[in-house]
Amino acid sequence: MITTSTVKGQIVIPSSVRRRFGIKEGTRIQIDADEKTHHIILTPITREYIFSLRGKYKGKGLLKTLMDERQKERNR
After folding, report:
1. Residue whose C-alpha is closest to residue 46's, from 29, 61, 62, 60
2. Which of 5, 30, 51, 69 could serve as 43's disulfide partner, Cβ 3.0–4.6 Å?
3. How far is Cα 11 from Cα 31, in angstroms, rounded to an integer?
4. Beta strands 28-34 and 39-45: pairing type?
């Protein structure tokens, strides 16, 4: 599928793709760019996407890392 960007840089996601990925009005979309391959990756942040991340970072100590970073910022 091909789409064209507007003067403002907006694009239209075809309805068949929106239906397939559950994109509705107000759906947030994460945009990532792969500099090496020059690809733009759009990921809809839907309820299903959030649930798919459950447990992915379990045991990584991310909460402790976040709290340490916040403490460092407060101490500056």
Report:
1. 29
2. 30
3. 13
4. antiparallel
Say whether 72 sits in a helix, a strand or coil. helix
Say how far apart CA 47 and CA 27 lie, in whole Å: 10
Greatest Cα pair distance, the chain, in angstroms, is 51
pLDDT value at position 34?
92
Residues 6+ apart with CB under 8 A from 39: 33
Local mean pLDDT, 10-residue blocks, the chain (76 residues): 93 94 91 94 86 76 83 86
Cα distance between the two ends of the chain: 50
Q: At 56, list the tokens.
A: 């992915």
